[in-house]
Structures
1.
Amino acid sequence: MARPRKEKKPKAISSTQSLGAFVKGICDVMRRSNCASALQYVPELTWILFLRLLDAQEARDQEEADAVGVEFSHALREPYRWQDWAAPYSEKPGHPQTSEGRPFGWKRQELFAAGDGKLFDFINRELLPTLHGLDIDARTGLPNPTASPKQRIIGRIMTAVEKVRVDSETNLRDILDRVHEISIDNIDDTHFFTLSQVYEDLLLKMGEKNSDGGQFFTPREVIRAMVHTVDPQLGQTVYDPCCGTGGFLAIAYEHISRKLGRSPLSTDLETLKHDTFFGREKENLVIPIALANLVLHGIDQPNLWHGNSLTRRATYGALFDKAPQQFDVILTNPPFGGKEGKDAQKNFAFETSSTQVLFVQDILSELAPEGTCAIVLDEGMLFRTNESSFVETKRRLVDECDLWAIVSLPGGVFSTAGAGVKTNLLFFTKGKKTERIWYYDLSHVKVGKKTPLTLAHFGFDKDGKPLADSALPANLTSDWLEQGENAGKPFPSYARLLPLRGRSDADSRYSWTVDFAARRAKAREEMQPILDQAAETRAEVIDLKEQLKRLKKSKASDDDLAVLISDIIEKDKAARELEAQAAGIDAAVFDLKAVNPSAVAKFDDRSPAEIIKSIHDQGRIVAEALGRLSSLVGDKDNDPSLKIASPAMRGAAKYG
């Protein structure tokens, strides 16, 4: 007697690479089904994947509620749940069943039996209108008064989906089967979160192909390091003014949730899920991804505002109505190199088209007193002193906030997102002037697409505690270990030194402290004689102008007037040059670029004669190698058994 066939369990997706390969297979099906470009298949995959993971999440929440005897209310009911219309159907023993006792996929099977096109009809005419109605009542055009906050958010996520783009039901069923394998239970979520990772991987491919989807997204390990540094607490509000797919908010949620332990109070969970996380995002394509990401992450009520943060023009602001005026923690990565128009610039004291400069000004206004910000900024923002908006924005930053740490990142951190921009992490707390800035330099670490910057490069474990030296990456510590005097000493990792900042033992080969107050005082001391001289020259100009008035009244000759006017112009120019010189000294104070005073520079100190000899020696080595290769080729040409190989060898010799 044949044994009954067991249901095949999905293969665990345990890494970013395996998830990427799996999703690529789904995208390949979409590309041959009327979704040729990423701008078409990304939104299609988003809503399908969202409904799949929502269903798995609600099933898990139902089990947890049943275990403790608590009533659980589903956001979706049959036949609009994934398990009804999208899950694969089977009559085999052991196939999962819905809470109503139907086999998973019963509605899908019913539609399949009814004939070709019925699945499309159900999705386009029943499922999508029902999901849209969770947000806006189609009869009144007003928000649905009976919908729960979670249902409203599901409706908002689905609003942009008008109909199925896939044009073949056979291909759609194939896509549904593949997506069904992506479940919460068989994905390792330690290092990445499914939905945002899928979306970001796709955008990276779009950026690599020079299409119009190459927005920049912050690597999750960098976000985790920033969150561990700031250490947000329950009861604080967390905000991202340009939240993208919601990575900063999701990882901050992970951080606070982990600190609450396995049995948090229900009131604490309510606060965490509903009243803690806020964000703004302007991209129509991205906002549904962010909402879906946060809902699936466990944030039942993401308070996201859809619109331009800098112009304050809202596309959809209903989910943001409980947001405070200022926030306790801001975690963000403003766009690099963006340009804003006058409608955004006019909202800020220091007008500029540079997006990141405007975002810093915006953040300074939205950060609550004693609130802390962690922000990714490009190198240009730090060192540019030739434009007043950059200087004055940084002046306001250090005058209103304590800029207590700057981390210099390697140049390739954002290269996977199409951006080779050198970046830094800035940490500051509002409420008092900057006195001292602690710098940490990670720029010596070599990173790339296959060797990204990880949390371990910052010296943190996943819980935010310092790693032991044995767990640190080799490309972080190798140069340091080469120095004999470091034998037996603990490596000065960022995580290990961070609590010591402000003390002399926080300084190392990779870290140093700048006395910013002393730098400003020194600049003022250098400026003062120049300003005094400029003031004297200005006074002379005023006296000369008074003298000019008197001469004009006394009908002095044109020659006398011309001499005096020339003198006025010359002294006025001299005063302006002195003022510009003083302004340059002042502006230089706000060059915040990380320049490691302990960096080990390797120089070629050979003399020209030694370099020429080295070139000659290398040439001789190459000539000898070519001679031996030619000899080998000649021997093989005389051996009949090696005639087949000889053309390749001759080619090697030819191009060698």
2.
Amino acid sequence: MDDKQLLEQLIWIRSQAVTFATQYPELEQLDAAHQPSAQNLLHYLSVRSHELRELQLALIERGLSSLGILESHTLATLNSVIAALQCLKGETPSAAPVAPVSVATSSELMERSATALFGARPLHREVRIMVTMPSEAADDHVLISGLLEVGMDVMRINCAHDTSDDWQQMLGNLRLAESQTGKTCKTQLDLAGPKLRTGTIKAVGRVIKLKPKRDLFGHVYMPGRLWLIPEGAEWIEQEFPALEVSGKVLADTRPGDDILLRDAREAHRELQVVAKHQHARLVTTDQTLYLQENTELLFERNGKKLGKGKLIHVAEVTPPLALHVGDHLILTRAAEPGTAGERDAEGVQTQPARIHCTLEEAFSAVQTGQQVWLDDGKIGGTVEARDGDTIDLLITHTPPGGAKLRAEKGINFPDTVFHSPALTDKDIADLEAMAGKVDMVALSFVRSSDDVANLQAHLQRLGIPDTGIILKIENRAAFENLPAILLTAMRSPKVGVMIARGDLAVEVGFERLSEVQEEILWLCEAAHTPVIWATQILESMAKNGAPSRAEVTDAAMSIRAECAMLNKGPNIVETVRFLDGIMQRMESHYHKRRLMMRPLSVCQNGVL
């Protein structure tokens, strides 16, 4: 490509971008502060609808910008490159269209938007840290104080758990912690959205397994342990399970006594009383046994009978549904308990397993041949048939050896178009209960710009139109409609995007997640819209105290966003401290790399 061809192509791309931006008549409906950013987004969408890789290489050969980081100042970058090319040709640079955002002001716009949502930038790092509140945060301001001390900038309240009273107690504890630490923290309310999960599973009985731990030679080094308590007695949950015993015989027992029984398999077993705590008795066994409802216990001391009692109120056992590739699973509209189906002596399924799907619209919207994924993508299937009340899935994907599907697991329909609104009746009630009490509201399962407009209408009705809006991008439709969703959201003064990578990975395919999250980051950069990097950041550390190597690398990548979200866990305070350290080190030497630009898939699918 010679200089003339290169210059002509760049000028043509620029004119296309300018023309494209003028074709969005709703620009004046946007918040005034967002209008330059919206124009820049439209310019960027136009540019990225073209194949640019050959052009980029030609620019690199001439020592010019490769257009690899033009997201936040698209037209200004094109103007500069065109002017430089004209100078190289010995021409006087021609008059260029005025860019809505200059290179100098683009960073200011993003920082202004991030500060409006997440508060002032911490002194020692750029990326804010958001933490999901556990239920105990409603009663424990010390936990929140600890999180503030180590670096929490945003408190996240998940409406899928607890109640509005609990959420308000969390906010009260935050205010107390702020006064004690001298630190401030923004708050985000995550609306639960449509519940798309598996239903309950039918219990098979009331039984508990007690099993000792053995070494390599089969010697018991830790016996099975269990608390026995009198019928109806109050009991604070301890390390070991507790079962109730009918009658009064338990009160007469003491350490050293024996308990004889036949377990659920009719095996003769024996328990030993080893400790006494008020009305409770700790018993142990060196044998594996299965204790079921109404198991008769014979209490003895030195071979003499003390009396009898029965086990009562043993918890129900609901085993998961075992699924293998080639099996069938029936999703039911009726909220009936799930069943495991039947198998022959060879293990081949003869009757399919069944389980309830909580989203009624799925039974009218889904089509044969479409994909369905369950339990965060661990189980995959294809719709073989549907009749309005059931969906017959042929299981096509499980881990090696099969999978176990439990109650309350997520279901994804990546190929299915749903028309139900993202806001449910529960979401609206939660929004009304918390109106004016939080800084921002996260919209779950957004699929279209109509969902955003619906939320904005409710915020207007409640008299809180300035409340920040966070768009949770967690399904394929939201990703494909992201440009239109962003433009509609920019009618509000404060807007952000959360990349909910868990559901998103299932919806678009795990192999595409890296590509898709990059496209989201680019589009949000072009719109000067802050991004929250979410899902499983340092999850192993938060839950178990130590991160995996892959999680540390992933956490380091979160500095691409304006905020990183951590989920709850027993080690969350130390996890926040650890993430804070990673960010400080990475931000000192991280620079964006040059990007090769093939056409974006969202531009190919139509942007508005």
3.
Amino acid sequence: MQTDDAAQGSDGAPDPQEGFGPNAYIDWAERLNGAGERASACGSGRMQARGVAAGAEAPLWEPVFVRAREAGMEPDTFFDAARRAEEYSFDPFDLEYNVALRQRDQPVEAFLYRRAGPRPGAQAFEAMFEVLTVGVPVTRTADTRPAPGLRQQPCNPRQAIGIIDDGIAILHPRFRRACGGSRFRAAWFQTLTGSDEILFARDVDHELAQLATRSEQELYAARAARIYAPGTRHAMTRAGSHGTLMLDLAAGADPRSEPEMAAAPIYAVQLPPQAFDDTSGRMLQPYVVQGFRWLIYHSLVLDRCERLVVNLSLGVVAGPKDGTSFMERQLRREMDRVRSLGCDRRVDLVLAYGNAREDRLVARQPLGPGEQAELGVLIQPDDLTPSYLEVRLTRGSATSDLGQLGVTLTAPDGQSFGGCLPPGPPALLPGRNGRAMAALYHRPAETPAEGPARRAVKTVAFAPTVRVFDGDPLCQSGRWILGLENLSAASMDVVVQVQRDDSPFPRRTGARQARLDAESAHGWQPSSRCFTALTPEGPLTHAGTNSAWGTVPPPRVHAIGGALMRPGRVSAAEYSAEGADWSGLGPRAGAVSETTRSPSGVLGAGTFAAGTLRLSGTSAAAATYTRHMLQALPVTHDAGDPSRLGTRTVTDNPAIRRRP
């Protein structure tokens, strides 16, 4: 779930207002959707409505995250100008946040919506800021303020849990206090349409009281009908939901046997379902950052909490992995802002280190001057979603000029395109119906006003291999060939990463995982007794498979690997990612995500009170480590695999069910 920070004009060239190169993910999605002709289509496979019923007439709005050019500008001045710009809209929360947490020598930063297309009436306002990232256009109302809940008196908790996820069952018994009331102090249900809903403790308690006459399913369905467009697929109709299980592992408690944990308040942000379905991450990032800011504001500012631990059990494979992506930079900036509240306030962020070690999604290929190499790219049949590759040079290259790397792509039927592509519009490979089935993009390096320079990247995008609508572009499935050629006089260290396009459990999006291939990728694997191992001499590698969102520097950020717990032995789970010298930091620690080889995963709370769900992955490990930061759990300091489990591993969690 990841995309680089970029914006783009309608012709595919960089938009001078943003100063970034073309965003392959957003541009490719718009090309697949007919450049906005089908407003009802959206996401990695056009699987979800953009927030309105099919055929509805409504304007497109782009979520943008911006920074004022003048550091000394007061928040009131900036947002007064935003109000006068009719093509822009914002949630007044952004004003409140900047007033409370902006340091005097730092510029205003805000999450805005702007009308897609020309904005002649907003030129004066647009001159006041730079755009940090642009999200996927959505159909929504101009008013972005969520429906207010019942305000409450500050509770001054010593420590609290925050979560950003999907499908959070706020009525579950595991999230109640000893008196029967809810532990949720604030919950924000985000939507793409602007019909968001915010609940405070008294609101949730009111819904809990309704359980005497109505079921959980009825109450969740009623909320979905209020805030989502008809036909929106959301997690609260399923027996298991990712967010509920993560929150159970992180903070679920029986008030009678775990009074200390049951006393910890919960702050939650439930992401728009469509953004969670879009597993390339291009839609997700602005909502995650805004949700993180909202958690900080409601817990540390309004409720005067001393410490907030936020669980974000989401991640992506491809990215710069050096702390320069928008997500990483902005999360770190928000954490630094907390210092303005005083030394008695603290926020920690817990992330999943990644599950892609065995998925053949990363390759590393050294190239001397004039050298060439080839990689296989396996595009799966019956895939409703697009696939992406990112091609980058590591800092180990003798040159940083990615323009001197020739990249060609050859389809299974022999068609070929590419070469030494300059920045600008993408190179397109037409399919049988005349529409592009693949594209090659080059985004140049850039030096932002603040922070480190961002390196160039080439992105290869593939259309789905099965049609949703007549006339859709259709990609050939099978083995494509990615050709690499060093056209410079200096050595290159090239990394190719597949952007994961399958969906986190229990989502069902019609995605099938693309992966890399090479002759050296079929060695003997003793554990599975088949030829699936990677041989050392080949380009495919386990190293560097960590999540691209997990390289924010410590000390307040914790990327967690997954551990397999067996009697007398702790080891890294097979899927738990492995870092590399080019892929940022190793995991801060590990935590249990498997208790046996079969069945896999750990058992926790399902969506409804009587249900359970089994889930594996470093997302479950991150949730357990989140709990460990508030409630000390058993730890071992000698797991023997620091590149995947860090220097210590949490070995147990009382929230894990011992039997179905």
4.
Amino acid sequence: MRQPLTLKDHHHEHRLFSLRLLVAVALVLVLSLVLIGRMAWLQIAQHSRFTTLSDNNRVLTQAMSPPRGLITDRNGEILAVNRPDFTLELAVEQSADLNDTLNRIRQLIPLTDDDLERFERRRTSARRPWEPIPLRGRLTEEEIARIAVHQHELPGARVTASPVRYYPHSHLFSHVLGYVNRLSAEDLDNMTLAEQRNYSGTHYYGRTGVERYYEHRLHGQVGYRQVETNARGRILRVLEEQPPVPGDDLRLSLDLKVQQAAYDALGERRGAVVAIDPRDGSVLAFVSRPGFDPNLFVTGISHKDYARYQQDHDHPLFNRALQGRYPPGSTVKPMLGLAGLDAGVTSWERTIHDPGYFSLEGNPHRYRDWKRWGHGQVDMEKAVVQSCDTYFYDMGFRLGIDRMHDFMVGFSIGEATGIDLLNESEGNMPSREWKRAARNAPWFHGDTINTSIGQGFMLTTPLQLAVATAILANDGHQVVPTLAADETHPPLRPDITLKDPRDWERMKHAMEAVVHSNRGTGRVMAKDARYHMGAKSGTAQVFSVGQEETYNEEELAERMLDHALIVSFAPVENPAIAVAVMVENGRHGGSVAGPVARQVMDAWLLDEDGNLNIPEPLARPPIQNALPTQASTTAQATRTAAP
């Protein structure tokens, strides 16, 4: 049976199609209106905002680090300079696979573990994530060529040439100049907002020495430039530029010839030399030996090199001249003698008998003289010339620690000198109050006796001894050691005046006899001298010897021997240089430290032909806020140090 034939309802289908078409047209129309509205909102309402964002993507503001100021000695010899260094930098944001990029770079140039560790440390502490981070510096021409050939395989990598600090004299000025190295996040945290802005784009910061103290002068002012870049970050053109202001050049009072003489005179021995012009406080030489190579620290010292310095028993990173604390020994006897004279407890004519020891009444303990059989009858001049300990034991006991302390701090003994360097050690000029605070113990007569020959609790730095000698040579006029040639610092203490001003000249002539008389303890240093000098030698004991024991240096290890010291000035009639020398474990001040001081003074006072030619002092600005002159306050070892 055949199925009935079904006919299509064309009218219904037409209506359904029309409805669907109407819905589709309406939907398209609505979406078009939404799109047009969105475009209108973006193009009109948000035009300013997106224009700014577009410009920020296209235009970048780059900080331009200022060239660091040069450092020269007083004669214009370059001590610190900037020279180009080619560095491979890596912008992490532009590298899709950082590890892959680093591996490709390692195939082209050597990268040590230290290089990678420093890179990772800088990356994690980066101030701005888009800034390129140094990966390896000091690239050779061959390494630069390899990187250039494979540049397309190293996204984010680029070779830049930037000025890097260089110290042409290396070890010679290491402790006084210091060094710069990479600016850290911690450095920025310690800055004000204005300082942080000025260090935008800066990679290096003064870390120690003159570089640190005068960082504000050497750094300069940051510059800026606006550049147009493409989508890959490549600079297309420079739109605007404000050049940086270079840091000021810094001229120091140091003299290269004198510094070299001091460094060479110490030889391979550990020690320090400080030379000062007493006429204006100019520091002529500032040596601590052994030194180090500051160039290793500039771009980041390797673990191997740093460990070598740290493990060196001679401590090359330790600034002995500024921070070394040593008993001054007999070198302070002239100052102590002036204290006794001014207080009236002794005189130039007063004599005592020296049997080779000093003892307190009712006390069997003997404070021995360095000369076991004694010096016989001794007055003040002989006590200075032959360094008679017994005379100063007696005088110091009469003077007392209170007057001794008040007088000696006027010479910067145990006090900051005011030098333009950071982290200066103050040493120690002991007092009753100091011992009670530091040792929780009372002051004893034995402490006074030990202090009277520069031993016991008294500790000084070579810098302090040079300043004290300059003050004595200057008849009590205060001297502030200064490294910058155009700086003048006001004194920290008033001038020292004596009741009898003639004592200054008499003490200087006694120090002259130390080197120019047959019995002076420093006579070896005056041989064939073209000028007259004054000096006082001394030794500082490293350990104590018992009452019944004998000091035998032949049986001691080298590092247990006494330190050798000497202070000196010249010429006697018009002092133009004051020198302090300390040689660790040098044993004898006169014969070991004396020749070092002589070479330093010769370098300053003699011309190339060996004739006396005293240089003129620097033309410094006048001292501001100078202290008024005031009258000075008049004031444990059982083996004493040899002169």
